[in-house]
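Checklist before submission:
- one chain only
- standard amino acids only
- sequence pasted in full

Submission:
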Amino acid sequence: MRFCTEPDDMQFHLALEDPATPDVIALLEAGDAYGASLYPAESNHFLPLDALRAPNVRFVVARDGQGTAVATGAIALADGFAELKRMWVVPEARGKGISKAVLADLEARAFDAGHALLRLETGIDNHEALALYERKGFIRRGPFGCYREDPLSVFMEKQLGAAAETA
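Returned file contents:
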């Protein structure tokens, strides 16, 4: 478990959790609804709950000082890379550094698991997410894994390691 305090004094902690708890399921459903409001079903690539509980997935939850789940994120460890999945911060907790902390935590977990490459897919209209990923060193690339070219998707990757940690 990692405790974080951001400049606006919002305290939160990050920990690996089972995604199949009612409050976390509610967060995942909120993220699904947001994605569904922006993109057709064939352009949403959410890992379902069962897949989030697989042995190759590390699922983290950020909770505020009262223990309320305010953000989620996961990495799926694949052959040769890790994939970032299910990043979501509730609207009322945005702008407080939580997404940066979740991303940094997941990058460290991927690297600790022996993966020096982190990839992701997100939508073209997820402007805040795209800006975060670009600020944190992700570069655009083509589809990977089972993904196909999709005009509504953006594919990105980042090299992890000592050089990346100083950025």
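Reviewer check: The mean pLDDT is 90.
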